[in-house]
Each structure stands twice: as C-alpha cells, then as structure tokens.
C-alpha cells in the first residue's frame, strides 16, 4: 500500500447526533423498561474516526452535510469547540440533520435506531481540489453507500486513489442493504477492509462468496483484511498470512465508537509505515481506550495509547 508524504485523511460517511437512552436491561418486544439517564452526543462513524485521529495528531477532514436545524447547530458548535476541521462540512438549508437513538444497557450492549437525514448527500464541491491532492488516506463507512449518491462517492474515491491515497472501507451493520454492484465496486477499490465478524458474514451472503477468506480477499485484491471480534480481539490477514490479536483489558463503560477508534488507530499506524502487527496493536489500544468513556468519541492521547500497550495504564 502506497502512502504519500502528506498525512491528511478524508473521513467520509456523515455526522449525526447520537441520542442516548440508558436502561438497566433492554425491554422484551412489546413490554417496558425504566430509563436511568439520557443525553445527546455528536456522533456517527465520520466524527468518531476524525476525533480519534485528532487524538493521535493526524489531520482529519470529516466529509458531511448537516441540516440548518438544532442538531446541525450542535454539530457546528462541537466542531468549533474541539478544533475539528469543518472545511468539508456543508450546512444545507431546509434539510434535516440525521440522528441515532442509542439504547445502552448495564452490560454496555448497544442497540441502534438510525434516522437518515441530509448526511447522506455528497457533492464534489464538498472537497477542495488542493485537499484532494494532499490526501494520504480515505476512510469510508458503509452507511455512506446506502443512498442515491453511492456511485458518485465511489467515482470520487477512485480519483483520490489514483492520486496515491489509500482507502479503508468499514462496512457497518447495514452492509447487507448496500446494492451488490456498489459493494463489489468498493471491495475492488479498498486497500483495507475492516468489518466485524457479523458484517463480514453479511458481505459473504450478499455476494454469494463461498471461498475461504484468504482466497476471497485475493479475488478482490484487498491488501489487508482486519476482522474485529470485540472483547475477543482481532483476526487479520495480510495477503495469505494470518494474524491474531488479543483485546486490551480495560474498565469498559460504553462500546459505542470503539470500532471507529480502532480504525483510526490503524490508519495512524499505516500512515507511519509501521509493521502490521504494530498497526493492529495501536488500533486495539485506541478501541479499548474509547470504551472507557461514556459516549462515542473519548479524548485520549498517543501517550495514553503507548502506556496501555506497555501495560502501564490505570484504565484496567
């Protein structure tokens, strides 16, 4: 995988507001449960990855449209207060900002219900030509490929890749709803595929892929396949070589955004031309640290990551 000199990252997928509902246990369908707390956080894969990259000193540019409404105002304020680049964020008049209901139980298990707003929109005008030239990495979430803009998004990514950028595709839980042709196209474009085990199975079913994983990724010329298994760690492939990695032991409060933080840590490792094992370790440490915060995008430093990797942290 080729990485150009600049370390700027386009993070594509939309910014939304996560509306948290905390419960002791998720209700049985048709029954009731008591809410113990509720709050809102700016979230979505795009902003979660961008925040984690900022934690690590990487210049991240979230790409999204937001509405001219209360949730849109919340997002704008968040970007300003956290010094996140807003060059690729467009405010759309008379449009509604997307949101996600996050039900979090006492075992930190999350259940999502998402409302698609204008974050699914895409235009080449969102990204300035000089930024395209300086982009080293593109992160794309599968949520961004569920709209009528999917083909245009893929054409843009193809152009950025032809300029030397690398592409990471994070399928997301709704990957089974992406059109087959679009899914084929992004698999052929991406250098790094980073699903969890359930998402990988959905891809295989969608594409009727019966081959073993190593043969399957060879078919699409995917350079790195990284499978997230939550608390059980990761399984990864580089070519036909298989890697296993254990999860770091931390006191987890909320697993929302952990996979996004993991992806950001891996991007950091790739940008710094680290060995693949170290890329996976940094990603795992970032994902683990993010679970020690309530909300989808916790604040930690590269030093915190290094301490956790060395076993010198008090997060456990």
Automatic annotation (TrEMBL):
Protein name: Carbohydrate kinase family protein
All residue ranges annotated as the Carbohydrate kinase PfkB domain in the record: 8-296
Source organism per UniProt: Clostridium tanneri
Keyword check for Transferase: yes
Pfam families xref list: PfkB (PF00294)
GO molecular function: kinase activity
Classification of source organism: Bacteria, Bacillati, Bacillota, Clostridia, Eubacteriales
Keyword annotations of the record: Kinase, Transferase
Superkingdom, taxonomy of origin: Bacteria
Stored PANTHER family: RIBOKINASE, SUGAR KINASE
